[in-house]
Design goal:
The chain is built from 3 helices and 28 strands. The chain has 3 domains: 27-135, Immunoglobulin-like; 145-245, Immunoglobulin-like (Sandwich), CATH 2.60.40; 249-390, L,D-transpeptidase catalytic domain-like, CATH 2.40.440. It has helices at residues 172-177, 353-362, 393-397, and strands at 27-33, 41-42, 49-50, 54-60, 72-77, 82-89, 97-99, 105-111, 117-124, 129-135, 145-148, 153-155, 161-165, 179-183, 189-195, 201-207, 216-221, 239-245, 249-254, 259-264, 267-273, 285-291, 294-302, 313-321, 328-331, 349-351, 368-372, 376-379. The strands form 7 sheets. Strands 21-20-19-27-22-28 form a 6-stranded mixed sheet, with no helix packed on it. It is mainly β and 402 residues long. The protein is 5% helix and 40% strand.
């Protein structure tokens, strides 16, 4: 679609008509150029002054009503130099871009999103301007995601940025390039791809070491227009989340000594007896670093949901989830005889009502539970909750797609 040419005031000979050319695969704009100086140039054809319009051609690499999304918009000037190009999107953010060193082309910083109408307005250094429009084809499949932690939350020092995708992500490099993490203190970190406990594709960003208290973190996921690959579909929006790191808190769980201690700023503020999972089978607890995923209060726990038959069906207070597979720290008054003496639970870390309530009131989502001891069935996997801290820094960096 082309903009109407502006009328040109003639002072002598009639103006030559402006031509609009079409080239395969491009939309072409005719620019009307008007004289900017008071003096008129000589017109070789008419022998008089030349205040007449002269045509210039600009081509756009995307055109029509079903242009391919996922490509940068490129505007090329046939002759002369571009002064500015604006590409606006119907119902979305405008595309920013850069003019080349020779002034002949402009390329958008981001790609065109699917199912979006765009309008191009270009100006050259001689005062000419023109417009064009195109619409990209709609996405045949859309990919969505779930972000953690929640927006504007305060979390513990071990909380990773975690993204779970609805559909498979085959082009992991393209997706990762669109994910930008910024921190208030230039924290070093890396993305790592893994399979979530649900079986879905997931990518987490964790620091090299635990976050420093007070760090402010922002994620800009500029995914609109990114194709996640076969069977995954297109992303059709951007995402953004911000969060802050709270107090430096670590929960130390010693399976062999049957003790749990809460440390804040390096000082122990709680040290209580507990009983963890019965060793020697599936009822044993996990070791390694587990990150507090959620504080769920009073919940119904049923053994059948974690593959332990009909061993129990209880309402449990002060429940703090540590893994997707069902390991919690919680109140377990029925196990009081074993607190501080033996591990005799069905996999969770149990305490008295008072001790569990006190811990529940002080910990926050993202606090690490560092679990040590021989009475365990293995180490928390990176996808079973937030187990990335159980992977060495070098191995974690190797999980990045870039």
């Amino acid at each position: 679609m082309f903009a109407a040419r502006r009328p040109v005031r003639r002072t002598a000979a009639p103006a030559r008509p402006v031509r609009f050319a079409l080239t395969a695969g491009t939309a072409v704009l005719g620019l009307t150029l008007t004289a900017c100086s008071g003096a008129a140039a000589s017109d070789s054809a008419g022998g008089g002054s030349a205040g007449a319009a002269r045509g210039a051609e600009i081509s756009v690499n995307l055109r029509g009503d079903a242009a391919a999304p996922g490509k940068p918009v490129k505007v090329t000037l046939g002759s002369g130099k571009l002064k500015s190009v604006a590409v606006s999107a119907d119902g979305g953010d405008a595309l920013t871009g850069r003019i080349s060193a020779d002034g002949r082309t402009w390329t958008s910083d981001r790609v065109a999103a699917p199912g979006t109408a765009y309008r191009v307005e270009a100006k050259n250094t001689e005062g000419g301007s023109g417009t064009a429009a195109f619409t990209t084809a709609a996405a045949d499949k859309v990919n969505k995601l779930t972000l953690a932690p929640g927006k504007n939350t305060t979390v513990g020092i071990a909380q990773p940025l975690s993204i779970v995708f609805d559909n498979p992500v085959k082009d992991r490099a393209a997706v990762e390039r669109a994910l930008k993490v910024s921190t208030s203190n230039n924290t070093e970190g890396s993305w790592g791809w893994l399979q979530d406990y649900s079986g879905k594709d997931r990518v987490d960003w964790r620091p090299k070491e635990y976050w420093k208290s007070g760090t402010k973190v922002t994620l800009d996921a500029d995914l609109n227009g990114v194709d996640s690959g076969p069977s995954g579909g297109w992303f059709v929006r951007d995402y953004r989340t911000t969060f802050t790191i709270g107090d430096e808190q670590v929960v130390k769980v010693d399976l062999d000594r049957h003790r749990l201690a809460l440390q804040r700023g390096g000082k122990t503020v709680m040290d209580v007896p507990m009983s963890a999972g019965t060793p020697g089978g599936e009822k044993a607890s996990w070791r390694g670093t587990a990150v507090l995923m959620s504080k769920e209060g009073t919940i119904n726990m049923r053994s059948e949901t974690v593959g332990l038959g009909d061993a129990y069906d209880k309402m449990v207070d002060s429940s703090m989830r540590l893994t997707w597979s069902g390991m919690y720290a919680h109140a377990a008054p029925w196990n009081a005889a074993y607190f501080g003496a033996a591990n005799r639970s069905s996999g969770c870390i149990g305490m008295s009502d008072a001790d569990a309530g006190a811990l529940y009131g002080q910990v926050r989502v993202g606090d690490p539970f560092e679990i040590t001891g021989a009475d365990a069935k293995g180490t928390v996997a990176e996808g079973n909750g937030y187990g990335a801290w159980n992977v060495s820094w070098a191995d974690w960096q190797a999980k990045s797609a870039l």
